[in-house]
Amino acid sequence: MAARHLRSGLPLLQARLAATESAAVAQVSRGLATQVDKPAENKIKVPKALYGGTGNYASALFLAAANANSLEKVESEIGDVVGAVKKSPMFSQFIKDSSVPKATRVKAVTEIFAEAKFSDITQNFLSVLASNGRLKFVERIAERFVDLTMAHRGEVKVVVRTVVALPEKEEKELKETLRDILGKNKTILVEQKIDQSIMGGLVIEFGQRVFDMSIRTRAKQMESFLRQPLDM
User: Fold this and answer.
1) Is the whole model's pTM more than 0.85, yes or no?
2) Lowest mean pLDDT segment, chosen from 72-76, 102-106, 197-201
3) In this structure, are strands 187-194 and 209-214 parallel, antiparallel, or unpaired?
4) CA proximity to 31, closest of 72, 63, 70, 73
5) Shortest CA distance to 176 belongs to which of 201, 158, 203?
6) How many CB atoms neighbour CB 165 within 10 A?
7) How far is 210 from 227, CA to CA, in rounded Å?
8) Gene Ontology terms, cellular component aspect (predicted)?
9) Is 61 helix (H, G, I), strand (E, B) or coil?
10) Cβ contacts of 133 within 8 Å, gap of 6 or more
11) Mind listing the pLDDT tens digit for each residue in 179-209?
12) What does the alpha-carbon distance between residue 215 and residue 212 come to, in Å, rounded to a whole number?
């Protein structure tokens, strides 16, 4: 009975959550709008659509930073915040502790990043996150923000897993092949990862695509084929 009631109330709940996130993002945009003083026709559009709360926040930050010609600086500052979260257990606990009063959270964030001499856009953005109780999602928001900045610059990150590092010549050939597939105007950024478990070959990942050319996968395919009954 409770499950039935929950299912019947889901559309209303989702609508309310969406409205809450929309209002929060509107607050971000209003808070950052004062940092942008450019004609409307010169404004840069979001290079790709992101969905969900973190996507909305990342998009709002991107628009503010891009139209203020501060993308590189804001990207660096947001990266510093993520680095601090990963390096400092105390800071990580602080931003994720929902019991910290909002006023305390906002005051601390404002003072910390003002002292770090962050740009006004980044400071205002982090203050809004703190005020809305969304600071705990800053790592995911940062990831999605970087997705936007890379798309804006025409960059594509490609993760290549191999047993041994690719020689420079092979990496160059791989980039050229991927550029033929993705477009000549794209900049291919290769991140190599050593993975002994694939046994050989390589696995290429970019975006939502995975090209598995590993020996491990081929061995599994062969095993599956050999286990099939013979057609006599």
Assistant:
1) no
2) 197-201
3) unpaired
4) 63
5) 158
6) 12
7) 26
8) membrane; mitochondrion
9) helix
10) 98, 102
11) 888 888 888 888 889 988 888 888 888 877 8
12) 9
